[in-house]
Amino acid sequence: MNALPGATDLMRLFASSALTFGWLSLSLLARQLAHLKLAAFALSILLLPLLAGLQLVHWLCLLLDEVFCRGYREARVESPVFVLGIPRSGTTLAHRVLAEDPQFTTFTTWECVLAPAVIQRRLLRWAGRVDRRLGGHARRLLDGIIGRIATGLDGIHPVALDAPEEDYLALLPALGCFLQVVPFPFSRRGWRLGRLDRDMPSAERQRLLRFYRALVQRHLYAAPPGKRFLSKNAAFASWAGSLAETFPDARFIACLREPLQVVPSQLSALAGGCRLFGHRADDPVFVERLMSTLEHGYHHLMDFAADRPGRAVVVTEPELRERLAATFEEAYRQLGLACSPGWQARLRQRGGAARRFRSTHRPTPACFGLSAEGILRRFRSVYGRSDTPFGREAA
Question: For residues 237 and 194, what is the distance between their CA atoms, to the nearest angstrom?
């Protein structure tokens, strides 16, 4: 499991991913035409080749790393910390607060989307220095594009080039990002990523994990020395067991929030992307697949944390919002992480801001043809667990 992918393994993964992406793209276009989704078809004709071209550049640069930056293979991944969780459960807050702890290094948006390879980071940093000397016009243009893309998302997930970001976006070249179910809701492989530990074939799962470990090593190789790697992925709930095998000394923080709040919030977060590609987030098949994936994630995370005291802790979204400093101080204690006095003071400052924050993103189940009673029934197995953090009264 700890072996790194060489050039041959990368080429095999590239070929498999390229063929799969091509088939998914053609299937999407055919479905859009069949249902007369002409605006979505036109947009897909524009976006899919651009996305394919970007991934091709990433693959080329990842292969060039094997020639010019092979030192990344010697980077040691020591006691990384993974922030996992159910989507919409406070993982972004937890990640961005932890990223301010100077002991950590984590992926940023530009690294995930534009530079998963070491050689790309070096080139883009050099280009950034040149751009700053010339007045920073290219940076302002990129910021403007990101701002346009992220318009209306600030209540869901703030996006900025330099902000800490979910590193599963760096798995896009290998089609390892669960968000592919938004453009391709018919992708069986996409939905299997939501149950990776259980449903992904072993050989495919191990190739993907070797690829991910190599991405982490590339990041550490390019980062300042002596840093501990920090990851956040709300779509990694079902990856917990595989990550624990791949990184044997890792620590895990699992974020949870009750299903009654998560389901409409997650559907609302995906709705815009679904519309873009001619789908509906309230489609009954899509809703059921998503709820089934969420239900699996709840059980998987709670079982995982219960089996690994000292390596995994569970925190809830209300705890992060109301008692952020105390919650993280206790999590650090349980996981054996150093918590410096300066970091504790910073935590208390962030705790006050978290208590004052009120999200404007408050969708209701009815927005998606659901009811509160129906969600409670659908997730009765989660609410009914003896170790559930949500309370029995909701069931």
Answer: 8
Total domains, the chain: 1
- Which pTM was predicted? 0.92
Residue whose entry in the numeric block shows the structure tokens 């996981």: 335
Question: Are 87 and 268 within 8 A, CB to CB?
Answer: no
pLDDT beyond 60 at 150: no
**Strand order through the sheet with 251-256:** 104-106, 228-233, 81-85, 251-256, 312-316
Total number of residues shown for the chain: 395
All residues at 6 or more sequence positions from 98 whose CB lies less than 8 Å from its CB, including other chains: 81, 83, 104, 106, 230, 253, 328
| Domain presence at residue 31 | yes
Tokens 């150093």 found at: 338
User: Which residue range forms the structural domain that includes residue 101?
Assistant: 7-394
Structure tokens at 88: 């919409």
CB contact at 8 A, 163 and 109: yes
- Does any domain span residue 2? no
With respect to residue 273, please indicate whether it lies within any of the assigned structural domains: yes
Return the pLDDT at 6: 66
Report residue 149's pLDDT band, with 50, 70 and 90 as the boundaries.
low
The predicted structure's pLDDT at residue 145? 67
pLDDT for 137: 79
Structure tokens at 383: 């609410």
